[in-house]
Write a structure and sequence with these properties.
The complex is a heterodimer.
Chain A (H helix, E strand, L loop, with lengths): L7 H6 L7 E6 L5 E6 L5 E8 L13 H8 L11 H8 L3 E6 L4 E8 L3 H13 L5 H20 L2 H13 L13 H6 L2 H11 L5 E7 L3 H12 L22 E8 L4 E8 L10 H13 L5 H9 L3 E7 L8 E9 L5 H18 L3 H17 L4 H14 L5 H10 L3 H11 L5 E9 L13 E2 L1
Parallel strand pairs in A: 2-6, 7-11
Antiparallel strand pairs in A: 1-2, 3-5, 3-6, 4-5, 4-12, 8-10, 8-11, 9-10
Chain B lengths: L2 E5 L12 E5 L2 E4 L5 E6 L5 E8 L13 H7 L10 H11 L2 E6 L4 E8 L2 H16 L5 H18 L3 H14 L12 H5 L3 H11 L6 E6 L3 H12 L21 E5 L5 E11 L6 H13 L5 H8 L7 E5 L6 E10 L3 H18 L3 H13 L1 H4 L3 H13 L6 H11 L2 H11 L6 E5 L8
Parallel strand pairs in B: 4-8, 9-13
Antiparallel strand pairs in B: 1-2, 3-4, 5-7, 5-8, 6-7, 10-12, 10-13, 11-12
Classes of the chains: A alpha+beta, B alpha+beta.
Chain lengths: 452, 440
């Protein structure tokens, strides 16, 4: 997550009329319900977030979190296969679902009068899913097609998958969200059933409702539809660590493409205690200074002035259940090599470490973050996403305004120090995409975010 | 938000949704410079969205100079009188403002999202006005950007989806400029000069043909001033030569292109309809049933739900100023590509021959009409409607009329409209990553 925040903008920029109000209530079965009221349009979004993502999988059944996400559309005892989508469609709704390393979520957007229907259907499939071998047999083929499309036939997808596997030795971020092809081939409906029994429970979920609703009414509806679902004893969640890297790693991925690419990944921390830590905020600001706008350092220096790269960017996300990466990437321009690009990026790092960042650069990133807070008021769906992510990650939605304040408090010396501490070769994995011509038809074996 | 209220309560939907749906109240006028303005005043959020569109898309390119229109648009914010590219980028970022744009076959537009407080807004608008009305098209920047565009074009030539799209557009549109790649070709982009861009800009970026869409926290008087500020210094209008129509009845064709990917990327289609086609609603609703309606369309049901042949399969009409493409697309592993293509063709042929069932039509109307509020639930979405309504000369009551027009569509109209517009025997088909050992 790049930029998160809420609330303080009102203070700094003159109070917006549509200031979001957030309410929460936890049902006796453990389901936490969070409501973000927004009365601008007569619509509502329901999102249910399960704290179960690919990082909770075991070796041999990678991809099962995402497989179950697909199977959740395949019917319950009361709602036959295909009916869930038909009923949401007939209510004028839009729906989908997505799986990540950290969580799995389902959503519907509809007219506010249709919220009870959406709740009834979503609650039903939380505990009454009917997993049949016949439907599984068809859907696993769809998922293999999805894998071919997203990963096996995409240079960028292959690169990402192989890079993550090289970066993480012990941590399950090693495995792709969509799963290894051999695991998908070996998977059975029993694996999906096992996953469903293990994680799909009200006390492992957060329900986020955002839109033109009254919180009290939403809580009553949630009690009515979700309240009777029994709480479950959840499995003990494995705590993962990743051992220190102990030296630079370099890797090459060959795939059909025209342009080479360089990606530099440094191990970095995520936020665990947002009130106390400071380095993750400094890294968010650093990413903004490097590539938060067209005048940021990487684009200005590498693309526009030196003309070494045709594209260049930096990325860091402070909010995740597992560890983070600080990533720098670039595509060499015609006539330049990946070695030229790596040297140019290293020169930028050296400059940061030596001279730090200017007050103007710092202020620019903060101004963008604050304005982004106001723009966020235009997307109910995005605000609900942010709440769901923060809850699923374990930081809680209350951390959102806190993180905004902390970003605004980041100093130039903290940014410089964070660059010095994190951008170290011993924690670096460098991956290079080496383009292959199409005509050779190379034999190729076959993370992130997967929509249903 | 200031709104109109419309009642939706006809036939099928009376029981479903009898509540009044509010649509935004669109104000409209012409600036002294001749531009058309559509404005929705809304003070809920202290921000402003503005977009200026001109008919300067890739359909105004020639085959010899494909890419001129795209580069003319792309270079707008990379240097203008008194503002270097870095001044603009830095200036916008300092304000937290976002300068964006879009470009397609018909339309070039630039857009701004900014906080609405006067001190911020006025600076952002001044930069946008300069970018839009006084671009420099410097030779060194063009050289650099051409290198980047060429790299992107070469990269795209390795991607099965791009290879398929390029071949498909050509097959559907023939010699009409809609068939040109929107960003040009390697050979044509390499030859483009600053003078080409200057000429294109002077011919096509005119106030009299511009559409200004404004949405958000400003008054009518402020909106009037900014519309004039953004268009008053655009070049004076030159006449633009009329273009020949897209030839509607193409011959059937099939191209099978080798690629090492594990999947075949399949596209099939033909010229479909224009934005102002009288059959627009019949074709739109019909297509929802055929392949536009998410998980519940016929194509999705046949190809994915029943047989697991693809992750994604869809159909759509691309409604343009002139006749735009009707397109079906899917990806599936090579070994089953021919089976999947046969199934898609059969599904299309059956739909065109027989039309939808009454039950399918009812379900489509329930979704499209019931989901109407989702189309206008944010400033961003309303801004996009304002641009489209203005640019394509649609009625200002388009949003008010939308649900009723959908409601009025009948099974017979859909069948009739599809039969007049889509001939399944005369489709252009492209398969990239075609199964091996067959004709090439």
């Amino acid at each position: 997550m790049k930029i998160l925040l809420l609330g303080l903008s009102a203070l700094l920029l003159g109070a917006p009329a549509a200031q979001a109000k957030i309410y929460e209530h936890t049902l006796s079965n453990g389901l936490k319900v969070v409501v973000d009221e927004d009365h601008r349009a007569p619509v509502v979004v329901q999102q249910i977030w399960y704290k179960a993502g690919s990082m909770d999988e075991s070796n041999g059944t990678t991809g099962v979190a995402h497989v179950l996400e697909h199977m959740m559309f395949k019917g319950t005892h009361a709602v036959p296969v295909g009916e869930f989508s038909k009923r949401i469609a007939a209510a004028g709704g839009r729906e989908n679902a997505f799986t990540s390393n950290d969580y799995t979520a389902y959503f519907q957007q509809l007219h506010k009068s249709k919220l009870p229907l959406a709740m009834q259907l979503e609650a039903d499939r939380m505990h009454n899913l009917n997993l049949s071998a016949a439907e599984f047999g068809k859907e696993i083929k769809v998922i293999m097609e999805e894998r071919r499309w997203r990963t096996d036939d995409q240079a960028a997808g292959l690169m990402q998958e192989k890079m993550m596997a090289a970066i993480y030795l012990e941590h399950p971020y090693h495995h792709p969200v969509i799963g290894w092809m051999s695991d998908l081939e070996a998977m059975s409906v029993a694996d999906a059933q096992d996953w469903y029994k293990r994680w799909y429970a009200p006390n492992n979920a957060t329900l986020v409702i955002a839109g033109d609703v009254q919180a009290a009414e939403v809580f009553a509806l949630a009690q009515r539809y979700y309240g009777k679902i029994p709480k479950r004893v959840l499995p003990v969640r494995r705590v993962w660590t990743e051992p220190a890297q102990l030296g630079i790693k370099r890797m090459v991925v060959k795939a059909p493409a025209e342009l080479p690419q360089l990606v530099m990944n440094y191990h970095a921390p995520t936020l665990k205690n947002p009130a106390v830590e400071s380095q993750p905020y400094a890294l968010e600001v650093l990413a903004g200074i490097l590539s938060g706008n067209d005048s940021a350092r990487l684009n200005k220096h590498l693309v526009r002035e030196q003309q070494i790269a045709s594209e260049a960017g930096a990325g860091y996300e402070s909010a995740a259940r597992g560890p983070a990466l600080f990533t720098l990437e670039a595509t060499p321009t015609t006539g330049k090599s990946v070695a030229d690009v790596e040297a140019a990026i290293r020169a930028e790092i050296a400059l940061l470490v030596k001279d730090g960042v200017s007050a103007d650069e710092l202020q620019r990133v903060k101004a963008q973050v604050l304005a982004g807070e106001v723009y966020k008021l235009d997307s109910t769906f995005y605000r609900a996403m942010q709440i769901g992510q923060m809850e699923s990650i374990g930081l809680g939605y209350q951390a959102i305004p806190l993180m905004l304040e902390k970003i605004q408090a980041v100093t130039a010396s903290e940014v410089q120090q964070a660059a010095r501490d994190i951008l170290q070769d011993d924690a670096l994995t460098i991956a290079v995409l080496e383009p292959q011509p199409l005509s050779d038809k190379p034999k190729r074996a076959g993370g992130d975010f997967h929509a249903h | 938000m200031r709104t109109n209220f419309i009642k939706i309560c006809t036939l099928a939907l009376c029981a479903l949704s009898s509540q009044a749906i509010a649509t935004p109240l669109i104000q409209h006028w012409q600036t002294a410079s001749g531009a058309k303005v559509l404005f929705v005043e809304d003070h809920d959020i202290p921000m402003l969205d503005v977009a200026v569109s001109v008919p300067a898309g890739s359909r105004f390119d020639s085959a010899q100079k494909a890419g001129v229109a795209g580069l003319t648009h792309h270079l707008l914010d990379l240097g203008s009188q008194g503002l270097s590219e870095d001044d603009t980028a830095r200036g916008m970022a300092d304000l937290g403002a976002q300068l964006g744009g879009s470009f397609d076959q018909d339309r070039a537009s630039i857009s701004l999202r900014t906080l609405s407080q006067q001190a911020v807004r006025s600076k952002a608008l001044a930069m946008m006005a300069q970018v839009l009305q006084h671009p420099l098209y410097a030779a060194d920047i063009l050289t650099r950007e051409k290198t980047r565009v060429l790299a992107g074009l070469k990269e795209a030539e390795t991607k099965p989806e791009n290879i398929a799209d390029k071949a498909f557009q050509k097959a559907v549109y023939g010699a009409h400029p809609y068939g040109l790649p929107v960003s040009g070709e390697v050979a044509t982009v390499a030859a483009i000069t600053p003078q080409d861009l200057q000429n294109f800009y002077r011919t096509h970026y005119n106030a009299a043909r511009a559409v200004v869409a404004i949405m958000g926290d400003v008054t009518r008087a402020e909106a009037e001033a900014m519309a004039q500020q953004l268009t008053g210094e655009l070049p004076q209008a030159d006449a633009v030569a009329a273009q020949s129509e897209v030839a509607k009845n193409i011959a059937a064709s099939e191209q099978r292109i080798a690629h090492p990917a594990t999947q075949s990327h399949i596209l099939l289609g033909a010229p479909g309809m224009s934005r102002n086609d009288p059959d627009y609603f019949a074709l739109y609703v019909g297509n929802y049933i055929l392949g536009g309606g998410g998980f519940v369309s016929r194509l999705m049901n046949e190809v994915r739900e029943q047989r697991g042949l693809a992750y994604s399969v869809y159909s759509y009409f691309m409604p343009l100023k002139q006749t735009g493409a009707f397109q079906i697309g899917l990806q599936t592993k090579k070994e089953q590509a021919d089976d999947a293509l046969s199934l898609v063709r059969k599904t299309l042929a059956d739909f065109v021959a027989n039309g939808p069932t009454e039950k399918e039509l009812l379900a489509a109307k329930q979704n499209i009409v019931g989901g109407f509020p989702l189309r206008i639930d944010s400033n961003r979405k309303i801004l996009d409607y304002l641009s489209i309504i203005g640019f394509y000369d649609m009625k200002l009551t388009y949003l008010d009329d939308f649900s009723v027009r959908v409601e009025q569509v009948t099974v017979a109209q859909i069948r009739d409209a599809f039969q007049r517009h889509i001939n399944p025997q005369r489709m252009a088909t492209v398969m990239v990553g075609a199964p091996e050992g067959v004709k090439h």
